[in-house]
Structures are given as structure tokens and as C-alpha cells.
Amino acid sequence: MKPAFIEKDYEQSEEQLRLLQTITMEVSAASDLTSTLEIVLREVCEKTGWVLGQAWVPNPDTGVLDLVAGWYCGDGELKPFRALSEESHFKSGLGLPGRVWKSEQPAWIEDVTNASNFPRSPAARTAGLKTGVGIPILSHGKVIAVLEFFMRESREQSERLLKVITAVAGQLDLLKRATRAEAEAREQQFLTLANSISQLAWMADGEGSIFWYNVRWYDYTGTTLEEMQGWGWQKVHHPDEVARVVERIKVAFATGQPWEDTFPLRSKTGEYRWFLSRALPITDEEGRVVRWFGTNTDITEQRELEKALRASRDELEQRITDHTAELSRINEILRSILKNMGDAVIVADKDNNFLVFNPAAERMFGKGAMQMPSTEWSHRYGLYLPDKVTPFPHDQLPMTRSTRGEKVDNIEMFVRHEKAPHGLWTEITGRPLRGSNGDVLGGVIVCRDITELKEEEFFRTGQSRVLEMIAADAPLADVLTNLVLLMEGQAEGLRCSILLLNRDGKHVRHGAAPNLPAAYVKAVDGAPIGPRNGSCGTAMFTRRPVVVTDVMTDPLWTDYRELAKICGLCACWSTPILSAQGDVLGSFAMYREENRGPLPEETRLTQIATHIAGIAIERQRQQEILREREARINLAAESADLAFWILYPEQNTAWMSEKGRLIYGFDSNLPLTCDLLLSRVHPDERADVKSAYDRACALSGTFESEHRLRLPYGKTRWVIMRGRCLKDEEGNLLETIGVTLDVSAQKQADLQLQHQREEMAHRNRVSLMGEMTASFAHELNQPLTAIANNASAARRFLERGNIDPALLRQLLQDMVADSQRAGEVIRGIRSLVRKEASAHTLLDLNAVITDTVRLVSSDVLTRESVVTTELDPQLPRVSATLVQIQQVLLNLIINALDAMESLPPVERRIMISTRSDKDDVAEVSVRDFGTGLPKDQPDKVFDHFFSTKQKGMGMGLTIVRSIIEAHGGTIVAENAPDRGARMTVRLPAVRGQTQTIAAA
Amino acid sequence: MANPSEMEGKEVCVVDDDLSVLKSIHYLLASEGFKVRAFNKAEDFLTHASAHHVPVVVTDIWMDQVTGLEVLARLCAISPKTRVIVITAREDLAARATAMAIGPVAFFMKPFDDEKFIAAVRDALSKSEK
């Protein structure tokens, strides 16, 4: 393969030479100018590639150029241009012929359709002509004709072509002369031309004997004509090639056919260069070969270029081959991967054509279909959402989304179709396929079969559900039935049962067997366990798994064989269910209708089933125990009149025993809340109860409260409520658990006793009045005396008639004041004998003692006794009822006076003292110097009806003690060190309250 | 009725620890024209009696600080001629007997009849030595 430009180049040069030779010979044979021009036009056109040639000759008559000859390539399209030319006559300077005529120079127009001075442009356009050239033919300095040639290609001006045509045109001038000398000159001209070309050239005679070489030949080979002429040229040929060359050229010379060959020629420097050699025969009028004209064109560089090109092309080809092989290998690997991989791989273009649909995809979805609208995919391939029933929406399909350009990750899909009737689960990842410009071309999805994972997940979920049922205390039968169904769902043709061991430890009870025949279940229920009692009875007895592969032959099944036969049971494997402590709770059995032992998977299921069943049965046993315990507690509570209750403050719910509901007046089926419970507390005490409860909750402690309940229909009950708050590890309040005791009856008795005490205290006070008549008489007589005297005085002044009004007013004022004083005395006596108890106030005991001593002073004097006081000014105050404290003091003083009646008056002394050891106790002691208390039992004085006195009722000190104790204090009776008795009263002080306020 | 001129220059002492009673006796005696010297405390009266001639004294017995009987005993020693009228708010037969034994000219239970009381004072005053 030769590059076209190289060929063209040297071929053209060769043509030019041949053209010159032909024209020279033709012209010498031509008769006139016109026919000569016709020959020239034809030869030039044919040999140098023009499609149209025309010759113009000046008309001496009109002074314009006329068309005299033309040659046209056999193409009908050129006819209009020809016709136009035939009609045209060009003045000097007009059009292409006129310009050449005028300038006497060749003219080259690259594009005649677009040239300014070319009137035939439209016709040229129609004819499809582009390049035009005009050549003047000169004879003796005068234009005798103008030749014009056209071609269809647009071509730049070629100097060489112009030179050739000009040279040809020059031949016509020789023709005009037609002399021998001219002919010789013409030969010389040819030789000059032949020597001027770049090729080596030669001429041979008809027999092939070379008689001429051009100068280039000699320059190259460094030889002479003598050496070369005839067949001497073989000397410069390469020895390896010369024989072939000679043989071939001899054939050409013999046949007269044009010759062409390629061979190396040695240069004068001894280097071989490659030449393309051609020779054309030149014949005479009879057709005999008279001469050969040959050329040798140096193609070494072309050959090397060609060689280099070939090498590079070969390399390229090799590379392409290698690359193709690599691609093919990769392709093969990919195919193998796609074929063998477990994941389904599907690639689709945007038109829903599946480009890849690997075997795994076919296994998963069936055959991939082409040209199917994506809206039909879900139906065609059985694609569903994870709910297993809703067809997957086509616009949400991973492939649809991928081809939309979205990334899709881990989409779960359920697939069910004819070939996968049980369905399978797949997890799909999808990606868009993009071209190098980023456009989405399609999508690829990878689908992983996750059926096993999902089934495992469902199995686990099933286990969780059963465990939840256990936690929610669902009936045991339901739990076990669910468990059995779950296990049966894990393997084809599997039937299971759970039997329970009776509490007697000797018989079985039915547990769950939803898919075993009822007759079989009934027969087994209540059967004994033992060393040969079927699979289950034996398993429970031996505490070991029992595998019976054929119940028809196994000795363990002797007693149950007929039953098994009827029920179609073949193999039965049973495993004991054990509690956490290792006690047998029951058994889990698997039945199969073929004779074999358990597979590893079935053994695993058995382990899970026995574990869960164990939890369920044990839980139920515990619940039973709890229920029995609760029943016992309720029984105990009812007999103890105790209400048990639990409050759950977070949920605002509460539980209460039956007895509790009775105490609180709740119907037995009323749902209880904490608030409802609180609402039963008497409104006056509700806030206190609530705050005690809240305090206990905050401190996580206990609380106790005695309060009233207000029941429906206005009934009131006294209760004592005790509770304990329980918290979890984080300190959140879980519940409050406690009891309520109905103390209404006891409270009633207490109130009655209280009433009796008050009555006695009152009587005591009344009787005290009797003991204090002297004091009361004196207290009253004093103001009455003053009033009487003042009244008498006033009367006397009036009778005398000399009364001073100021004096009279003074007397009257004094009377009013003394009347009030008498009233005070009466009021004091009344308060002492008043029945109802007055309220507690803050009292300064020192002041109370002083007043009381003053009150009894008359009686003390009457009894010729003396009362002295030693009062601690720092004595703290106490919270007490004034009258009751006075009552205590009066009782003690009068008792002391009584105790000293037998003493001589000078010894009759009573000493009352107060002191405060500590801040929190106020102590009052009353000491006499009498006969003292019984030595062995000084405390006996506080007993009812104990008296050492003739007139006493024996109630005084009993009442004193009850008053002191009601005030939270104590009283101690003892004998003083030397003689007499000492009564010491201690009352709780009001903290920080020393005596600052006088007693009321 | 005694002649008022008889009473001239003679004053009646009254002793009572109860101020209301003391004041009322003072007014009562004053309404009949007696000169009265009142004592709230027995000690004060005894001091007075030891330095002055006291023809008549009206005194309470069973006073807080010093018993009336004690006052009577000490007065006998200081001024044996003073005529004593005893008044008391307390009805006590034993005390009365004791008082009478010591020798008062009259004994009155509070509250007392004003006519008899004034008659007793006047009588005692008139019988007192000049």
C-alpha cells in the first residue's frame, strides 16, 4: 500500500514526460493547427487530469478570440458550458482567454464559479467546474492561440503543471516551423527537460537495448554510457535481485506490454536505494514498438516510511489484538462471575431492556423479559412489599429508581411466583449506570437472597412473642400452643407436642399438641411415666432425651403401638423439660412420619423449645404459688381486720385486699386509684395525711397516720394507716405498700374513757372548791366589806349634809372597783368548776404558781400553814391548759396541807419550787413536811381510791397524773430526804420560750 | 351619840393590809368626825404606837406579813392601855377565842354593821384614858 500523495507526485512527473514525448510525436504528424490543438487538448486532459479543454484562436477580422477546438470528458453535464463557450467571443482582457491573450502569461483560477473576470461562471457552476487554467501559445513572440483547461476539484496553482503544459504548448510553436533544425532543437529541448526532472530516465530501442540515460542516472550511479549501454545496466543491480529483474523486463520487451518493477540500484557510493521503475513502449504508425521510455523513481525513503508505517501499524494491530484479548478475557471472567455468583445481578438500559440477567437473577425472579414496561415488572416477577401481599409499586422498584438516577440501598422485597411458591426474601442495592458525560444510561441492581436470614429473624420474633406471652402471664395452654406452632413452622412435615409432669411427679398431663390427633392426645393425658412408657414418659422418668426412630419396633412403645399406628406416627423424639433447679417439668416431643433420628437443625429447635417451655411452665408454677400465698394473706388480713393495699403513684393505680375494700367502702370490682383512696380520708385530715405520705415518699421511708375515713352515706371510721415506700435502684418511687387497721371500736372506747376522765376531773375540781371555802370567803369578803363601808360613809356624809362632791365621787369609784374585784373572784371560781376543757395556751408556770398560792392563801392561813416558793426565773414556758395546771397545783397543795394537819402549826410548811435542768423540761415540785408516803410503794398514791386521808375520795392524784400525762409530762411521788413527801411534775417545755409573758 | 368635843385630840388607828378595806374604814370613821390614822403594815403601826399615845386601834387579824394575833400580843407590851377592835374576813372560832382572850374590846366579821362598828369605836374612845 503506497501513500497516495507519493504516488501522485511521481506519477505526475512521469506523465508529464510521456506527454511531452507523445505530443512531440503527434504534433510532428499533424497536418494543421486545429487538429494539432485537438491532439494537445486531448493529451493534456487525459494525462494530467483535466475534464475539459478548449482552444481559442484570435480572429484577425473581428479582433476577438474564437473557439476552434475542444475536448470534453464524456460527461453530459459539460454540454451547456461547451455550448456557451462556442457562442462566446472574448476581447483582449475579457474572461480567462482574453486575459491570457492580453498578458501573454498563464493564468490560474482556483474557483471559476466565484471569479470576478469570468463571465461563464453560472455555466461553470452548473457543470460543476472549479479550477480553470489558461495557457498562451506563443510563436515568435505573438499569441497564436490560448488553451484553457478545467477540472472539478478546486486546486491550488501548480507551477510544475503549468510548466508541463507550457512546455507542451511550446511544442506547437516548433510545429509551425517544421524544419529539421527545428526538430533537432526540439530533441534538445526534450533532453533538457528530461535531464531537469528528478527521476532517473532512460530510452531503449525496440529490442530493449538502452541507448540513452539522463544526467540524473549518471549522477546517481557514477557510471558512463559505455558501461551502461545495451544490457550493461545489470552491473548496478543487487546480485540477489538482478536475475528476476532481467527476466521480467525481457517479458515486457517481448510482449510490448508496459513494464513496472521495484528493485534496488547501487549508487556511486556503493549504497543500494530502492526504485520504482516503469517503461512505456512508443509505437510507430504500424503499431511496432520503436522505442521504450523508462523512468526510475527513488522510493527508498517512501519504502522506509512505508516500512516504519507498517511497523507502527503492526504494533498498533498487535496492541489492538492484545487489548482485545485482554478485554475478551475480562469479559470471560465477568461472565463467569455473573454466572456463578449467588447474588442476582440485573442491568437494564433506560428502555427497560435487560442487558444482564445472570443465572442467580433467573433463579430468583424467573426469565428476564425484554421490552416489558416497568409497570408490569411487579406482576411479572411476583414482587411484593415486606407485608408479602401488596405488589411493589413500580415507581419504587429499585431498578426503576436506579434508572431514574437514584442510589438505592438495602431495599427489602418479598418475591413469590410459580417457581418460588413459598416465596423468598431479597435485599436489593441499586445504582444508576452513567455514561462518560454523566447521563444516566440505565441501572444495575444486585439482589441478595436473605430468605434464610429473614426466616431466622421471624423465628426469633416468634420466640420473642412467646416470651412476651409468658411475661404477660398469658394462659399456659396458649403459650405452649404458640410455642409448638412456632417450632412446627420451622421444618416441613414436623409435628410437636408438649406434655406436663403432674405435681405428683408420676403422671403426665396434656400441655399442647395442636396438630396431633385428638384421640392420641386424650390417650396420653394422665398416663404414668416410667422406664418404658413411650418416648415422653420415658424421657421424663429418666430425665434424658429419648430418640425412637421407629415406634412400631421400639420396645418403649409397646403399650402405645396400636395408637401410634392409627395416628400415622413413625418416629418420636422426646426431651425432658427441666426447671432451673433441675426438676422435671414436662417433655417436648417431635413426631415424624418417616423412620429417622433428629437432624442437627431439629436438635437445635428442641433445645430452644425445651428452654422456652421450661420458662413458661416454671413461671406458671410460681404464679400459682403466688396466688395461693396471696389468698392466704387475704385470709389472714380479713381475720385481723387489716386492709392490705399497694399504691402505684406513677400510674395512679392501686390494689386493695377485699377486707380493705370493705373498710374503705369500695365495691369489689371498682378500679382503684391513689386519688380515690385519698378522697375517702376525712376532709379535715386529708391534707395532713397527704403530707405525711409525701414526706415518706420523698425519704423512701415509712409513715403512720391515725385519721378518720368518711364513707358514703356519711359514715365515719377511725383507722390507723401504716405504709412503706419502695424505690428502685435509681431512686424512682415504685410503689407504696401498707396496711390500714380499723380502730373505730377502740376509738369509741377511748372517747368514752376520755369523757369519764373529764367528768372525774370536774368532780375533783368541784370538791377542791369545798376545800377552799375559807379562801373564797376571804377573797369575797374583802371587797364586800370595802363596798359596805364606803356606802355607809357616803350615807353618813349625806345625812350630815356637808359632803364634798369630790369625796363622794371617790367613794362611788371605790365601790365600783371593789364590785369588779368581787366579780373577778366569782369568775375565777367559776372557771375552776366549769365542765368543758379550755384550750392549750403558752403558760408561765411561775406566774400560775404565784396566783394559785394567793388563791389558797386564806385556807393556808386558816390551817396555820405557810407556803413558800422558790421560782427559777429562767423557767421555760409550757403549752398547757391553765385550769388543769391550777387544778394540779391546788390538788398538790391541799394534799400537802392535809398531810400536815397533825403537825404543830410552826412545822406546817409547804415548799413549791421550779427549775429547769435542760431547756426542754419545766419542773415543778411541791414538798411538804408531813408524814410522807408509804415507803415501799410511793407510787401507789396515784392509784384509784388510794387515800391516807379520812375525808379524801382518793381520786385527786389519779386525776393529777392523767392531766400531766395528757400534757405529755410525768409526775413522780417520793419521800423527801429528811421527811415529808415530794411530788415532782415535769412538763415538756416549748423550745426557746423562757418566761416573758405573764400567765393569763 | 357621843359628844364630838369628847373626841377632840383623840385619833383612831386603823391597820389592814387590804388597801380597799383600809380606805373604806378610814372614810367610814371620817364620816362620823373621827380623826383616823391608817396603817397598811402592822410593823408601821407598832412603830407608831411605841412613840405615841394610841387610845384605840382597829386591826385586821390574819394579815399576810404578821398575824393580827401577833400584833395584839406586841401591842399589849408596848401600849397596854390601848383599846383594840378586831375585824376579820375569816370566820374562825379558834382565832376569835384567842383574840378575845388577849383582850380586844370588840370583834367584827367583815363585812360588818356600820352602826355597831361606829358605836364600838366611839365607846372605846370614850372609855380610853385621858
What is the top-level CATH class of chain B? Alpha Beta
What is the strand arrangement across the widest sheet of chain B? 2-1-3-4-5
Tally of contiguous helical segments of chain A: 29
- Residue fraction in strands of chain B: 15-25%
Largest sheet of chain A: 7 strands, mixed
CATH architecture of chain B: 3-Layer(aba) Sandwich
Shape verdict of chain A: elongated
Describe the structure.
- The complex is a heterodimer of chains A (1000) and B (130).
- Chain A is an alpha+beta fold and 1000 residues long.
- Helices cover 45% and strands 25% of the residues of chain A.
- In chain A, strand 1 and strand 2 (65-72) form a beta hairpin.
- In chain A, helix 15 (451-471) packs antiparallel against helix 16 and helix 16 runs antiparallel to helix 20 (600-639).
- Chain A is elongated, with a radius of gyration of 73 Å.
- The two termini of chain A are 146 Å apart.
- Chain B is an alpha/beta fold and 130 residues long.
- In chain B, helix 2 (42-51) packs parallel to helix 3 (68-78) and helix 3 (68-78) runs parallel beside helix 4 (93-102).
- At the A-B interface, helix 25, helix 26 and helix 27 of A face helix 1 of B.
